[in-house]
Design a protein that fits this description.
Subcellular location: Secreted
Keywords: Coiled coil, Disulfide bond, Glycoprotein, Secreted, Signal
Oligomer: single chain
Number of helices: 5
GO cellular component, one term: extracellular region
Number of strands: 15
Pfam families: Fibrinogen_C (PF00147)
InterPro entries: FIB_ANG-like, Fibrinogen-like_C, Fibrinogen_a/b/g_C_1, Fibrinogen_a/b/g_C_dom, Fibrinogen_CS
Bound molecules: calcium ion
Radius of gyration: 19 Å
Helix content: 10-25%
Order of helices and strands: EEHEEEHEEHEEEEHEEEHE
Length: about 250
């Protein structure tokens, strides 16, 4: 991208810091999300630095700038099994993985983004036979850690089944080391993943990654029940969010 933007003969020229922008007061500012970067003219999907509202530091995120209008901030990507998703509460809280590959953005950052403005959620899934589809929720947010990052979703549309496979509103997040689900069992331990489990619920996009030809018959896989059933482990999952009013 162009190495500097705005206020060329005024002030606020920032060379080689393309994530910085000049605000009306002439100070350099960092975009709060990928939607803002898109508005600033970044049209290439890839890794960018942002500073979410109420977050104290810069973080690196992957921005999807083409699909479905662009401006999407990645929250989760599964595609090859290269990253272990059987992780602790603290790992899911802070995020983990490779930003350009498989990763989880982190519940703290997701909480900050979704509590600062209304967000949409976009879930793009692929199976092992070349089929793919999208689930959209026109509202998505999670609660604070004291409420176990409980899920709020509404307004499902999409081609991955007649129902969305995210659990009913207010499902809390659980991890293998923290059981907050509605089951006498411990879903996160049975599923080796952190997720919003009910008892144990119709989805788990953080499940164990099974390769081709070993993707059937596992209930702890990368699952989206109302599309492929609960024992089918998907080839890829891309989950991203952007403001309802970018
Ligand atoms: Ca339980």
């Amino acid at each position: 991208s162009f190495p500097f933007t705005g206020f060329l003969f005024g002030t606020c020229i920032k060379v080689s810091r393309p994530f910085l922008w000049c605000n009306s007061a002439g100070n350099a500012t960092v975009a709060r999300d990928c939607a803002e970067l898109l508005r600033r003219g970044h049209h290439i999907s890839g890794v960018y630095s942002i500073k979410p509202t109420n977050h104290s530091s810069l973080i690196k995120v992957f921005c999807e700038m083409q699909a479905d209008g662009g401006g999407w901030t990645y929250m989760l990507r599964r595609q090859d099994g290269s990253v272990n998703f059987s992780r602790s509460w603290d790992d899911y809280k802070m995020g983990f993985g490779q930003i350009e590959g498989e990763h989880w953005l982190g519940n703290e950052v997701i909480r900050k983004i979704t509590s600062s403005s209304p967000q949409r959620l976009r879930i793009f899934l692929q199976d092992w036979d070349g089929a793919e589809g999208t689930a959209n929720y026109n509202r998505f947010s999670i609660g604070p850690e004291e409420q176990h990052y409980r899920l709020r979703v509404a307004g499902y549309t999409g081609s991955l089944g007649n129902h969305g496979s995210l659990p009913a509103p207010d499902a809390p997040f659980s991890t293998p080391d923290q059981d907050n689900d509605d089951c006498r069992c411990h879903c996160a331990q049975l599923s080796s993943a952190g997720w919003w489990f009910e008892a144990c619920g119709p989805s788990n996009l953080n499940g164990h990654y099974y390769p081709r030809d070993n993707h059937l018959g596992h209930f702890d896989g990368v699952k989206w029940h109302y599309w492929k059933g609960s024992s089918y482990s998907l080839r890829s999952a891309h989950v991203m969010l952007k403001p309802l009013h970018p």
